[in-house]
Amino acid sequence: MRTRLIVGNWKMNKTASEAATFVDELRQHLSKVPSDVELVVAPPFTALESVGRVLGSESFIQLGAQNLFWEPKGAYTGEISAPMLKDLGCRHVILGHSERRTLFGERGDRIRKKLQAAFAHGIRPILCIGESLEQREAGSTDDVLAQQLHESLAGFSSETLESLTVAYEPIWAIGTGRSATTEQAVAAHQTIRAVLSATASPVIAERTRILYGGSVTTQNIASLLSSEQVDGALIGGACLEVSSFATIISLASTTRSIGV
Ligand code: 13P
Fold first, then answer.
1. For the segment 79-122, what is each residue's pLDDT rounded down to a tens digit?
2. Helices in the chain by DSSP H: which ranges?
3. Whose CA is nearest to atom 5 of ligand 1?
């Protein structure tokens, strides 16, 4: 049984002080600590320290980063390394987000090196993959997902991949208000699990959490989580307001999957 995981990707939103106030309010808003859902917030780099300070090391809300650079230190102006994130208490890192791929030219080999750095420093990577609308309409969604997984995960042992999470984020659903249907998400997650089974191992495929991301809201989260193929969500816009994020978290904690 995979524990559900809800991740808030704040993208380039909130200053350090706004972020600290936000997590404080979020904690107060969550009437009870959800015991059956893991919860991660991924603020911008500049807010990691203030959020970490408010949360403390024992908080049920875990700290995640939105990116890292693969070298541990050196002359890489503007970059942030895995040891730097670890030192701030980051336990997760989002890698290969489509905004990184399309706006900053990240490709398979770079993402692979970033995964390697995360694994090496004990930070759990959340690898984002997903197809464009054009690719979906051309019927190549499964091929795109398989290729993105292969190029990022090639060469890692099954043991290493135990700490991997995959997020299926169709590009056409991100920030558009047009979520994938539950059926589309389930089909993509089944493809991802089959590729993981063939490339890593059936055990890894069974253990790996696969999140859905792309226009997740308080309205569609229960449906998306109704299948046991969907192990949680990676949320953008709807995690920026305390009330909608808290509602999504409590719905994730109370709704049961139907075993499809
Ligand atoms: P939205 O929830 O705003 O569509 O963003 C999804 C996303 O990109 C999360 O990483």
1. 999 999 999 999 999 999 999 999 999 988 999 999 999 999 99
2. 16-29, 45-55, 82-87, 98-104, 108-120, 133-137, 141-153, 182-199, 202-207, 221-224, 242-254
3. 236
pLDDT digits (tens, 9 = 90+) for 21-59: 999 999 988 867 778 899 999 999 999 999 999 998 778
Ligand 1: list residues with CB < 6 Å: 9, 97, 169, 174-175, 213-216, 234-238
Cα 82 to ligand 1 centre (Å) = 23
The rounded Å distance from CA 95 to ligand 1 centre is 14
Residue nearest to atom 2 of ligand 1 (CA): 236
Domains identified in the chain and CATH numbers: 4-257 (3.20.20.70)
